[in-house]
Design a protein that fits this description.
alpha+beta, Arc Repressor Mutant, subunit A, 2 domains, 3-stranded antiparallel sheet, 6 helices, elongated
Length: 154
Amino acid sequence: MFENANPYNLQIYANENTKQYYAAFVDEEGKKIEVEISVAVAKVLFQTFVRKERNLRRSDERNLEHSELNEQILYQRALHKPESLEDIAFENLQKEKLWKAIGTLPKIQRRRLILYYFEGFTYEQIAQIEGCSFRAIKYSVDCAKENLKKYFLK
C-alpha cells in the first residue's frame, strides 16, 4: 500500500470497503503517518501529483533538447508520423476513384451523399434544407451507397 518510491513521500489511496480516502506519508523521524481525507482533498492532491509529474516529464524533455538530436529521436517526437510516398499515392488514387464514382450518381443522390458524409450534416438537417422527410433523405443516401457499391464491383 505505502511505497517510498514516491518522490513526494506522500501517497493517496482509497479503502474500497469503507469508501474513505487516506493520505500517508513519512515524517522527519521516518514514522509513517496516515490521515483520513475528504474526496475533494484527494482529488486536489491527485491533480497536484499529475501536474508535478507532467512538469518533471517536460523538464526531462527540455534537457533532452540540448542533447544530440538524430533522425530517430526526431521521428519519435513527431506528432504526425510522415506517410510513405506509396501510401500517399495510393490514397490519392482511391480518392480520385471515389469522386469519379460519386460523379456518376444522380444529382439528388450525389448532393445528399456529399452533405451527409463530407459536410457532416444529419439526415434531419438535410431534410430541413431540402424541405422533405427524414425517410426520403435516408432512402436517397442508402440508394447512393448501393449505387457506389455496384460501381466498385464492376
